[in-house]
């Protein structure tokens, strides 16, 4: 067979469009931005080399720490809450019941809709005077809450909306994971008289850990990058900057205050934080994952 | 009936139905509000009124509604009387009675939403079709060709998927402003015409095609490009559809990138237009809900037409916005 050894030089032609665009817009920019993070630059004047000053300034910027803290709060509440709810619903959907398709369709609708449109809808739901949520709370004689204008409630309100938006996505992935668990394990457990809780604890939970780990890792990365809903629901970082998250702060520094070098330094620190988290997940949490 | 034989599943249904209502209600509320007048929206009643006044049939109004219906009729009559008068004598305080589509017409006239729609459709279709074409070419080369540095280039492509997106935003913006692409369709489309993820995804499917098929076809005089578009592509239709939907969805909903690279109204895509309209319309919730409904509707219609592919495209991607 002559084809086995022949080099297809034409292959580079096939690869060219993808490689060129990726190099131009994804690879080179990373090196470029690493360089710019050592400069002070507003894009109009000439860049001025200031060494690691952007990074030093960053670690003395209370707003930066506040934004990191808010982002951590967002991640620490939204990720477990979403995993808990979506796993529960997926387990319920994994029963031999009718209408699974209908449920799946409905739970998935928020996933396909745009975050901006649903953020506007939730802005209205959270409205202090005419909002749906305060209407419902008033039935139980609970006093109206200012939600997005209340420093204590703005971030939880955004978290709640984000969990609602992403739930269907996690449900689908959990369902796929559940369907990979062999049915005979449950049958054997039932014959041995295992309760539902015991079945969950000894079969479902351990065998689902690869899926849970995957969702946990991806949602943690995603929650460190949260931006759109914060931008749409709490302009200017919310009451007392209680919803100022890192990417929003980065956006303001770069595209409103034109401190590009400073914003890029922030982007790299954020990347390091995400990388450290992912590494921690991989090295520490993955030990507890049960791969069959 | 499964449910009757297994009554233990009834609580399961109860929980799932409550959950489904919770998932759907914001959309129902959005659509309902989009047909409501400002007076209805700003009422502080404790009741949740789902059926807006403007689309409620006459026979739906019980005796307790009689007052309100009378008032509505009187308002309409008053408006007509005012209209009959010459322009100068009209009482400016008499407002036009609310018609059911008023919020939609308000939104469409306040901002050129039709233009935003056309922009979005153009960008989405361009990016989806071209990026799929480019990705399938590269995936095909990786799956069937032998060439130096194949593994190195492939690993480099995979590496780009791990790069932080927000670190890319700023340098790309600087780069685009240097080559004067800011505020152009090029900025909205070109950076997204290549997707490492799509290459990786399609390569997995091309790899499953038997290599003998390729060798036999080449020996029979089939060129490499003919094999690509006559045999390989048609065989990979299902993953292509999945990928197309995923790409379409993420482009239709793209927000941060178009927000940054365009500030010309004529170039705004629908998500950016919506966000500007949201800060401009302030508390005019009716038109805001109408605009949101119009933004969501095309996707929801597509979703109902191709549900299976939609769900698959998300389940296989493992990506979130």
List the helices and strands and how they pair.
The complex is a heterodimer of chains A (about 290) and B (about 325).
Chain A: H1 11-36, E1 39-40, E2 48-49, H2 53-58, H3 62-93, H4 100-112, H5 115-125, H6 132-139, H7 154-179, H8 183-191, H9 196-224, H10 228-233, H11 246-255, H12 260-283
Antiparallel strand pairs in A: 1-2
Chain B: H1 2-5, H2 10-34, H3 38-41, H4 66-84, H5 102-110, H6 113-144, H7 150-160, H8 165-178, H9 185-189, H10 196-208, H11 211-219, H12 224-235, H13 237-252, H14 256-261, H15 270-281, H16 285-305, H17 307-317
Helix pairs in contact in B: 2-16, 5-16, 6-10, 6-13, 6-15, 13-17, 15-16
CATH topology of chain A: MetI-like fold
Q: How would you characterize the largest beta sheet of chain A?
A: 2 strands, antiparallel
> If strands are numbered along the chain, what order do they take across the biggest sheet of chain A?
1-2
By CATH reckoning, the class of the largest domain in chain B would read Mainly Alpha
Query: How would you classify the helix and strand content of chain B by structural class?
Result: mainly alpha
Name the biggest interface: A-B, 98 and 100 residues
How many helices of chain A? The count is 12
Within the CATH hierarchy, at the fold level, what is the topology of the largest domain in chain B?
A: MetI-like fold
CATH homologous group name of chain A: MetI-like
- Ends apart, CA distance between termini of chain B: 41 Å
Q: How are helices and strands ordered from N to C of chain B? A: HHHHHHHHHHHHHHHHH
Backbone CA Rg of chain A: 24 Å
The secondary structure category of chain A is mainly alpha
- The amount of beta strand of chain B, in percent, is under 5%
The proportion of strand residues of chain A reads under 5%
